[in-house]
Amino acid sequence: MANKATISKKDERLLHTKSGNRCAKCNIVLVDRSVCVGQNAHIYGEKPDAARYDISKSVEYVNSEKNLIFLCSNFHKIVDTDVLLFPAKVLFKMKSDHEHRVIQALQKGSLEYTYAELEVITSFLVQEIGKKSRSVNFELLRLQDKIEKNQLVEVQGYIDIGLLSVSSVEYYLNRQPDPSFAGKLTRVFVEKYNDLKRDGNDAISIFNSLWDFACNDQSDYKYRSAGLALLVYFFEKCEVFEK
Ligand SMILES: [Zn+2]
Asked: Could you tell me how far CA 30 lies from the centroid of its own chain?
């Protein structure tokens, strides 16, 4: 049984993002509006009496994202009970196959989302304006520098998917009748970023929280891809993440 206290928030958020917030076995959505009903299951068990425990694995490795698989409670119970049917090798393959399907679904979503999905998410986002407002200075940085400085290398693959369709976001924003629309969205992202930063979140958690926020916590891949492109658009414009 995964003990949350021993898994860092960063590793947990990375696991959920790579899993598309879904169970690696049955693909049901496990995170909704920041409420998580899924479980971070250890592949190699954490304690000697745990399933698939291997004394040669360090505690750090065992509690890292690499050794975790995101599962619903039903399936977590099954894999920890029937270890002959679910040895580590089978779970590592299940995890990587699932994460690969998530990437494919996001890539497909990037080609399929339209102004309709952008309309839904951006009209929600602009309503968030001014709920909390603070001022902050942002400096321009090259995207790659920023990825490194923000320690986002682990989510680089998702940033790349977002980059595939940032031009759609740009066209969409350019045809808005309200000339201040893009500025309003920037402000919403900056405010959200500041809140997350102030709460002490690391870069990976901030990126993932902003992504969930950008797609209004919707789990449909068209919305997740549209939200990712929107986030990456502001990221690329150097307006959201600070130095
Ligand atoms: Zn499941």
From this structure: 13
